[in-house]
């Protein structure tokens, strides 16, 4: 029996595996939330598959997304990242990752965890949308606008509403699997 998947991931084994195993699964772990937030910021203006193909390189380059280490990066480390051909070498995004790690830690100090902070926007549970086809799924919503504004107020960079909504989708804050997708009922 053939499984029906969301249209956006079809035709690429890496994309399909990501869709089948990770996308839309609720994430409450701060380490994973930071990884996705970082990857989403690098994706801004690019396709997700571009970032996904470089994910392992990002893990190595950014100390396995250890925000405590990243928050302390100084110019020599930032310079080496900008020379690393295995990642997206965008100076603004690399610097934003350091800034975001620092802001992430401040949120943890205030709320106990980043998870507690981010999930408060959905009352701690996923929003289950009902989309029949990919063209119905928005790039952002009033809720992602609100979260984006709050993150920016707290010092985050590269967290526009579209980046935030992609993060919400990736981490299961919203279930945007098409209703005919086999994952829709599973997540």
Could you explain the architecture of this structure?
The protein is an all-alpha fold and 187 residues long. It is built from 10 helices and 2 strands. It has helices at residues 13-21, 30-43, 48-53, 55-61, 67-70, 75-82, 91-111, 114-119, 142-153, 161-170; strands at residues 127-128, 174-175. Strands 1-2 form a two-stranded parallel sheet. α2 runs antiparallel to α7 (91-111). The mean pLDDT is 97.
Q: Uncertain regions: pLDDT < 50 for 5+ in a row?
A: none
The biggest sheet amounts to: 2 strands, parallel
**Strand adjacency order, main sheet:** 1-2
Oligomeric description of these chains? single chain
Structural class: mainly alpha
Separation of the first and last Cα atoms:
20 Å
SS field, number of helical segments:
10
Mean pLDDT: 97
Number of strands: 2
Global outline: globular
Residues in helix, %: 40-55%
Element-level helix/strand string: HHHHHHHHEHHE
Relative strand content: under 5%
C-alpha Rg, in Å? 16 Å
């Amino acid at each position: 029996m053939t499984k029906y998947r969301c249209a956006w991931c079809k035709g690429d084994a890496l994309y399909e595996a990501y869709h089948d195993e990770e996308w839309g699964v609720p994430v409450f772990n701060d380490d994973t939330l930071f990884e996705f937030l970082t990857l989403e910021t690098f994706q801004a203006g690019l396709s997700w598959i571009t970032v996904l193909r470089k994910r392992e390189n990002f893990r190595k380059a950014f100390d396995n997304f250890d925000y405590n280490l990243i928050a302390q990066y100084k110019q020599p480390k930032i310079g080496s990242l900008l020379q690393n051909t295995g990642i997206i070498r965008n100076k603004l995004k690399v610097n934003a990752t350091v800034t975001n790690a620092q802001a992430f830690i401040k949120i943890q100090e205030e709320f106990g965890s980043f998870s507690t902070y981010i999930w408060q926007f959905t009352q701690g549970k996923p929003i289950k949308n009902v989309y029949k086809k990919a063209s119905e799924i928005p790039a952002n919503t009033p809720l992602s606008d609100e979260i984006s504004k709050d993150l920016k107020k707290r010092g985050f960079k590269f967290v526009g509403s579209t980046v935030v909504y992609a993060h919400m989708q990736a981490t299961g804050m919203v279930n945007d699997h098409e209703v005919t997708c086999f994952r829709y009922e599973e997540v």
